[in-house]
Design brief:
518 residues; Arc Repressor Mutant, subunit A; elongated; Helicase, Ruva Protein, domain 3; mainly alpha; single chain; binds glutamic acid; 46% helix; 3-stranded antiparallel sheet
Length: 518
């Protein structure tokens, strides 16, 4: 294994090897739920991933369940990967999921909303510097003038000696006053946290029970880089304390960071929130869910025509379950049932087939006005124009007819296309039917039936009677009757049932279509 990979994985490996877990079924006490303040702290490096959406949802529900506050904090200190645009995209995704926050960037203009701002870490650098100075003065941190090359050499030597590649304080640590002078004179130095006492730490994790971090798991770690940029673990701990966060529910991959954060709280005498580390979400191959599994961002699912209610409900169940095993839960039910005792510490598997099923359930249950509002952008995107849809009764009929064939909103265009005259054409699939000698007879009789029909609309029963008369007049039955009529209505021999489509089409448009066949 390459040294860098080992360095990155070491905390996790050490934890897996040495952690002792004690699972407790501690009931919620007043102290665990008092003044609940939870946060979602995304790094804005792209669209919101479903894993992030789950973290946001759980924190949101927890706040609502206990009458607390949900805070959005943007962790954008990694200047190479964070972008303003990503922050905006993630805010849009959270709005789409209807996971509103009480404090954080105002979704309208991104200004700070709430008493503990700024809520973007890139605007809190002075605060971090202030706390780094407190650590320096209390002897919990030191200026480290060693170069990257020197540090790499130290790590390589440790690995060669079979030891974890942890950096410890240099023997000749520069006294603070002198270090400050050198830094003021332009020398570069990181501010490194000094792990003075090697002892075990235990975090009472709300998902996993007690997790023991062995004493030798971390060495001295950087709080402020030599270029002046503060590091995630440091910012996160300072912000959680200053923003008075009471509970942190976040992904399991942050478990090893928790140790460093606990050390920071302790050294600064700050109160630590309670932690709960959520299990991984895996793809169908049991590997961590990633882009190669297909859609993984909320934006992907939005474009694929999923409803945010369905996606929320689905991700709710990826790591949590309801006490009575019910799966479809309204937002109100989710809030009233949500407690950390129902988190599942085993990994969740992301099953898009199940999501699709859940989406179709939600889609069918939507009131038709609402369903139409959601479908319209998809029809527009597909370039469909359906003037009949102005009529609420027509819309109602069309949606009743089509919604059971829809699993996502993106299924709508191919169903509604049959109702758009401008899209009608006799398709190549109809070539065989066109060639049958019976077809001309059927079309002529169908045209005559239409012409003599008084009203502009044809009911299902009227259509059945018209079909019977065409059968008699043309002297044709079976597929040689039905297929040509289908071609005259939808331009192809296969598609939605005619008894559903014909009542949705105007007589005038049916006439135009059959004339195109003749
Ligand atoms: N910014 C971190 C991330 O996006 C979250 C850290 C945390 O929740 O403590 O993974």
């Amino acid at each position: 294994m390459k040294t860098t990979g080992f360095v990155l994985l070491w905390p996790l490996i050490a934890w897996v090897l040495s952690a002792q877990k004690f699972y407790s079924e501690a009931p919620l006490s007043a102290s665990t739920t008092k003044n609940v303040r939870v946060r979602f702290a995304p790094s804005p490096t792209g669209y919101l991933h479903v894993g992030g959406a789950r973290t946001a949802l759980y924190n949101f529900l927890y706040a609502k369940r206990f009458g607390g506050q949900f805070i959005l904090r943007v962790e954008d200190t990694d200047l190479e990967r964070s972008t303003e645009e990503s922050m905006r995209m993630q805010i849009e995704d959270l709005k789409w999921l209807d996971l509103g926050w009480d404090e954080g960037p105002n979704p309208a203009d991104y200004s700070d909303m709430g008493p503990y701002g700024p809520y973007r870490q890139s605007r809190r650098k002075e605060i971090y510097m202030d706390y780094a100075n407190r650590l320096l003065e209390a002897g919990h941190a030191y200026y480290d003038f060693r170069t990257d090359a020197e540090l790499d050499a130290i790590k390589d030597a440790l690995v060669k000696a079979g030891k974890p590649p942890q950096i410890d304080a240099p023997k000749d640590m520069v006294p603070l006053a002198e270090a400050r002078k050198r830094v003021a004179a332009g020398e570069q130095a990181a501010i490194r946290f000094h792990v003075k006492e090697k002892r075990d730490y235990v975090v009472q994790d709300l998902v996993r029970g007690d997790v023991r971090f062995p004493s030798d798991m971390v060495g001295d770690f950087v709080c402020i880089r030599s270029n002046g940029m503060p590091v995630y673990n440091f910012c996160c701990a300072i912000d959680d304390a200053l923003m008075k966060i009471t509970h942190v529910f976040r992904a399991e991959e942050h478990l090893s960071n928790t140790l460093r954060q606990m050390m920071i709280f302790e050294a600064l005498g700050l109160e630590s929130p309670r932690f709960g580390h959520l299990s991984f979400i895996l793809g169908s191959d049991k590997q961590k869910l990633s882009k190669r599994h297909g859609a993984t961002s909320c934006h992907d699912f939005k474009v694929k025509g999923y409803l945010p209610e369905a996606l929320n409900n689905f991700i709710l169940l990826s790591g949590w379950s309801s006490p009575d095993g019910r799966e479809i839960l309204s937002r109100e039910e989710q809030i009233s049932l949500f407690t950390h005792e129902r988190f599942n510490s085993a990994p969740a598997v992301f099953d898009e087939t199940k999501l699709l099923w859940m989406n179709s359930m939600y889609l069918r249950a939507l009131p038709h006005d609402e369903l139409w509002k959601r479908i319209e952008p998809f029809l527009k995107e597909a370039g469909l124009s359906i003037p009949q849809a102005q009529d609420a009764q027509w819309r109602d009929h069309a949606l009743t007819a089509f919604k059971t064939s829809m699993q996502t909103l993106a299924d709508a265009p191919k169903l509604f296309e049959a109702l758009d005259d401008s899209k009608f054409a006799v398709k190549p699939e109809a070539a065989e039917v066109k060639g049958w000698p019976e077809s001309q007879k059927v079309w002529a009789a169908w045209k005559a039936e239409l012409s003599s029909h008084a009203a502009n609309k044809i009911s299902e029963t009227e259509f059945a009677a018209m079909q019977d008369r065409v059968k008699e007049q043309a002297g044709v039955k079976g597929k040689h009757l039905f297929m040509p009529i289908r071609v005259a209505v939808i331009g192809q021999p296969h598609g939605t049932e005619l008894k559903i489509l014909v009542p949705l089409l105007d007589k005038s448009s049916l006439l135009k279509r059959v004339e195109m066949c003749l």
